[in-house]
Specification:
The structure is a single chain. This protein is an alpha+beta fold and about 110 residues long. About 25% of the residues lie in helices and about 25% in strands. It has a five-stranded antiparallel beta sheet, covered by helices on one side. The structure holds guanosine-5'-monophosphate (5GP) and zinc ion. Zinc ion binds next to helix 1. The site of guanosine-5'-monophosphate has 13 residues, from strand 2.
């Protein structure tokens, strides 16, 4: 999608520190990390948010969660624990309107979130 920064990272039109890629997903380091490990895992397909997904995306959403689980193991945060966040919409704190999963680890997190 034109003018979407994450689509531009997928298309290599703007740089990203890519840590994983397959046909359906891309993972890259967050530009403003909030934890020692902070990776954004995105669908290559432009979906604006979790609010916009449908039945047709069921396989893709399952796949992306498996990618996240594997990345967490590879980054060495699986045993101690980690957090996966999908900010959705204005009140959810979403700032980039392309579906993305934050994979955060390497420190303790509090609950409830702010
Ligand atoms: P959101 O607030 O939508 O849940 O998360 C957007 C995330 O994207 C933020 O954590 C922000 O730091 C990150 N981000 C925004 N622009 C870029 C960029 O151009 N490159 C990378 N790697 N991360 C970005
Ligand atoms: Zn996009």
């Amino acid at each position: 999608m034109a003018d979407c920064i994450f689509c531009k990272i997928v298309a290599r039109e703007i740089p990203g520190e890519i840590v994983y890629e397959d046909d359906e997903t891309l993972a890259f380091k967050d530009i403003n990390p909030q934890a020692p490990v902070h990776i954004l895992v995105i669908t290559k397909k432009h979906l604006a948010s979790l609010a916009e997904v449908g039945e047709a995306d069921k396989g893709l959403l399952g796949h992306i969660n498996l990618v996240i689980s594997r990345l967490a193991r590879e980054k060495g945060i699986s045993e101690k624990g980690y957090r996966v966040v999908v900010n959705t919409g204005a009140e959810g704190g979403q700032t980039v309107p392309h579906l993305h999963f934050h994979l955060l680890g390497g420190r303790s997190f509090k609950w409830p979130p702010g």
